[in-house]
Request: fold
Amino acid sequence: MRLGRASSETARFRWGKLPAVDSSPAPPALLSALLGLLLFLDLAHLARDGQAEAGGERVVLYGAAVLRAPLEELAHSYEERYGTRIEARFGGSGAMLALLESGGDGDLFLPADDSYVELARSKHLSAEVLPLASLRAVIGVAPGNPLHISTLDDLSRPGLRLGIGDPRCAVGLVVRELLGEAGRWAPIASARTVEHPTVNQLGTDLALGALDAALIWDATARQYGLDLVAVPLFEAAPRRIEVALLRRAPHRQAALRFARFLTSTEAHAILARHGFQPLDAPP
Reply:
């Protein structure tokens, strides 16, 4: 900000005799008009403040990476309609839960598997829970399945580039549990060439040709335009996605309204378009 010219203008002022001021009282009509103007300005200010407060609501959401695409679309639609700002933070489900445990200021928690909601409940972090959708682990492969992968055994072929999720993301934890219970984990563990902390990174590597196969969610395969190979072991164990309202949610009412919007018919259509199987909300 340049002050030189303003200072020179001020320097021209000289103290002298001040002009006489008319001290006679203002006419009643003028006083009434002034008071009316002040009242109008004050009411207008209050109205603007009320609008700003109504449009200033926000919801902080911690979500699994696989939900990023539908949640960003849903958040945009909700913000446009109701003016509530949705601040979404995405990552592996386990990593998101760890952030909440360490004092994260979240309102909603949306992991990719309801086991994380149970963990949150056991740690007294979550309150109300609403069901959203289901998904299954699959073998993701390039479009057209050029290597003709059809079973888990095919993942142990020499030279095949296999990716899995690390235990911080839901799909990494789920496949470890299912394969471990079936006695199938050891060959997969030996065959893996890379682990990623989010399923989206696995989808990206497959889409770019950096991997030949990866154990991912069926929704991820559809979102990235990949082919998927169903695995009976995984098909028999679909996972539930639930949205949990956190106990210490700083924006509790706004968060609950958005959570219920996520169970609406409109939200179900968007989830389905992104490869999820919506679940009916409770009455």
User: Anything to note?
Assistant: Confidence is low (pLDDT under 50) at residues 1-26, 28-54. The longest helix spans residues 28-55. The chain has twelve helices and eleven strands. The first strand starts at residue 58 and ends at 64.
